[in-house]
Amino acid sequence: MANQFNKQKIVEYLNHRHLNDGGYFFARVEPSSGLDTWLAVKTLRLLDVWPDNPEKIVDYWEKENIKTINGLFFAIETFKDLGKSFKQSEKHFQLLSDFKSRYLGDRNNSWPSKTANPETVVLVTDLAEGELANLYYWVSTATDLKVAFDKKEVIKKVLGFENKNGGFGKIKGSQIASTFYALKIFRLLEHSIKQKVSIDYLNREWKKISYLEDYFWWIESMVMLGQEIDDTKKRVMSRFLELCQKDNGGFCRSRFIGIATIEDTYYAVSILKRLELI
After folding, report:
1. What are the per-10-residue average pLDDT scores of the chain (278 residues)?
2. Phi-psi region for residue 272, left (φ > 0), alpha (ψ -120 to 50) or beta?
3. If DSSP codes are grouped into helix, strand and coil, which group holds residue 9?
4. Which of 22, 55, 141, 267 has the highest CB neighbour count under 10 A?
5. Which residues have a Cβ under 8 Å from the Cβ of 108 and sit 6 or more positions away?
6. How far apart are CA 96 and CA 169, in angstroms?
7. Quick one: pLDDT at residue 100?
8. Element housing 71 (H / E)
9. CA dihedral defined by 89, 91, 97, 103, rounded to 10 degrees?
C-alpha cells in the first residue's frame, strides 16, 4: 500500500486548533477541551512532532479545575507526552476517592491520602454503573499516582463483563470498545486472558464495523492480543481512512459524517501508524 496520507496537513489541522488558553478544541472556540488537548498532543507525538508552545499547554492544565477522573487521566497523559512531571495535589487524590465512592461501591470508607500506608488500601469494586472506560482511567491514574489498590479485585470485576463469545460488555452485550478497555486494564495489571476466544470474537465483529472509532478499538485490541493484521484488512482500513479525511487535513467519523474532529484524527493517525502508512 502506498503512503498517500499527508503528515503535514494533519499537523496543520491540529495546530490551527491550538487556542489562546493553551489547550485545543476542534471547534476552535474557547474554552478548550481537556479531551481534545490530550489527543492533539498525543497525535502530534505519534507523528514525531512537538506541539507549538508546550508551556502554554502545561499552563492550561495547571489552571484547569479538574473535576472528574477522566479529566485527571487526560491531564496526566498530556504531561507524559510532553515529557513533563505532573504536579500532584491532595485534590487529585480526593478525585480518586470520590470516583471510588461513587462508582466502585465503597461509600463508607474514605480513600487514604498519599501519605497512608499503601498496604492498607483495598479496592472493592461495584461496576453497576457504566462500562469499562472510566475504570481504565481510574486504574491508570491510580497507578501513575502510586495509589495502591487490590489488583485481583479489579481483575475479578472486569472478568464479570466477559461473555462466552470472548468479548466484554454488559449493557448491550459484547462491544468492541468494552473489549478494548478490558484488555487495556488487563495489560496494565499484567493479567493474561483466553486469547483465542477474544481473537475469534473480534474477527467476527470485523464485518460489522462502520465507524472510525470501532476500527481503532479493533486494531488496538488485536495488537494487544499479539495478532498480525492481514493485507486485506489493511486495505479496507486504508480505503476507509481515505474517505474519512477532509480537505483541512483532519478526519471525521465516517464518510457520511462531514465534520473532522481531533478525536477522530487521533483514531485515524493511530491506525495509520499501525499500518505503517504515515
Report:
1. 81 98 97 98 98 96 93 97 94 89 54 36 32 94 92 91 94 93 96 90 96 97 96 97 96 92 98 96
2. alpha
3. helix
4. 267
5. none
6. 23
7. 79
8. helix 69-82
9. -120
- The rounded distance, in Å, linking the Cα atoms of 275 and 235 is 9
User: Who contacts 250 (Cβ-Cβ below 8 Å, separation ≥6)?
Assistant: 10, 13, 14, 26, 260, 261, 262, 264, 265
Distance between CA atoms of residues 132 and 171, nearest Å:
11
Residue type, 251: F
pLDDT digits (tens, 9 = 90+) for 54-112: 999 999 999 999 999 999 999 999 999 999 999 999 999 999 988 877 766 644 333 33
Whole-number Cα distances in Å, 150 to 142, 174, 184: 11, 25, 17
Residues 6+ apart with CB under 8 A from 203: none
Q: Residue with C-alpha cell 507526552?
A: 81
Q: Which residues contact 207 (CB under 8 A, 6 or more apart)?
A: none
